[in-house]
Design a protein that fits this description.
The protein is α/β, with parallel strands linked by helices and 289 residues long. It folds into 2 domains: 3-65 and 97-173 and 270-288, Rossmann fold (3-Layer(aba) Sandwich); 175-266, no CATH class. The chain has helices at residues 13-22, 38-46, 59-63, 69-75, 82-96, 114-128, 149-152, 174-179, 182-191, 202-214, 223-226, 247-257, 270-288, and strands at 3-9, 28-32, 52-54, 100-106, 134-138, 160-162, 196-200, 231-238, 261-266. The strands form 2 sheets. The protein has a 6-stranded parallel sheet, sandwiched between helices. Helix 2 links the parallel strand 2 (28-32) and strand 3 (52-54). Helix 1 (13-22) packs across helix 2 (38-46). The longest helix has 19 residues, at 270-288.
């Protein structure tokens, strides 16, 4: 039974909760324990999805002996017989489609230091590859932090999957993902040309105060920067997900705080859904090879 691991930025909590709650064919769902997992666990629970939890170093024990080596030792002589060999092949094919997902959410604010972000994610890739048949990164290009990902992991035994748009491009950031891809992001920015605009998904809207505390030295949430009259719009991206009931209130409070106009734009979780399905299909195929 294949294992798909997901290393995720917490900004994708909503999309992750959505795709994982919608997938009722999973063999097992495990969320790595930690304070950065609380939000995802709460949202999964709201969808009646109750995953297993464990510290990262205990995940292999939860997974157990996936390959059933003890059983195979006993059954191996029988596989010489065509009847039993055929049964075994059917069992293997069925097992290959029963995917276990292990999710490891990482903390907000890693983007403030791209070298640290890269180091953290690369470290988790190497650690989780030991028990994974594939790893999906719920990260984007993130200021080119991962521009050399394919080169850095060339020849790596564990396949890596990324969030990609319909053109096969790794999406620029979480805003691009929510809008459906890099081209859609470019179109939205073009529509807002002539004035500075900030783009908020529900997670951004619920996290901006926390991010502000963590980024006191960052340009992103500097009060003076935000109060610059050239920045007069906050773009509210409705992804269609309902995990943050205070979305409108959070946007309104931000707009009032910094005297900005609210512009509403339709987004979706489609890109996250497609990327997840592609990664899941990939680990199944990898297992069957």
């Amino acid at each position: 039974m294949p294992v798909l691991s997901i290393i995720a930025c917490r900004m994708f909590e909503d999309e992750l909760a959505h795709v994982l709650s919608s997938d009722r064919e999973l063999e097992q769902l495990i969320v790595v324990e930690g304070r950065d997992s609380f939000g995802l666990l709460r949202k999964l629970k709201s969808d009646n999805r109750l995953p297993g939890t464990a510290p990262l170093d205990r995940v292999p024990f939860l997974l157990g002996n996936r390959h059933g080596s003890g059983f195979m030792t006993i059954a191996k002589p029988l596989l010489k017989l065509p009847f039993f060999r055929k049964i075994h092949e059917k069992m293997e094919l069925k097992a290959a489609h029963r995917v276990t997902v292990v999710v490891n959410p990482l903390r907000l604010g890693l983007h403030d230091d791209l070298d640290l972000l890269k180091s953290e994610v690369y470290g988790k890739i190497r650690e989780m590859a030991a028990f994974s048949d594939g790893i999906l990164l719920f990260y984007c290009s993130c200021g080119e932090a991962f521009e050399s990902l394919e080169e850095d992991f060339s020849g790596f035994d564990c396949p890596l999957y990324c969030l990609k748009d319909g053109n096969g491009e790794v999406v620029a950031d979480c805003i691009s993902a929510a809008l459906g891809g890099n081209a859609a992001y470019d179109e939205t920015m073009y529509a807002c040309r002539g004035t500075g605009a900030l783009y908020f998904t529900p997670m951004w809207a619920s996290s901006w105060k926390q991010m502000g505390e963590e980024r006191k030295k960052s340009r992103n949430f500097n009060d003076n920067f935000l109060k610059d009259p050239r920045y007069s719009r906050v773009v509210k991206i409705d992804t269609g997900l309902s995990y943050n009931p205070d979305f409108h209130t959070n946007i309104r409070d931000f707009a009032r705080t910094f005297d900005m106009e609210i512009v509403e734009v339709k987004g979706s979780a489609e890109l996250a859904e497609k990327s997840y399905r592609a990664a899941k299909k990939g680990v199944i195929q990898h297992t069957l090879e």
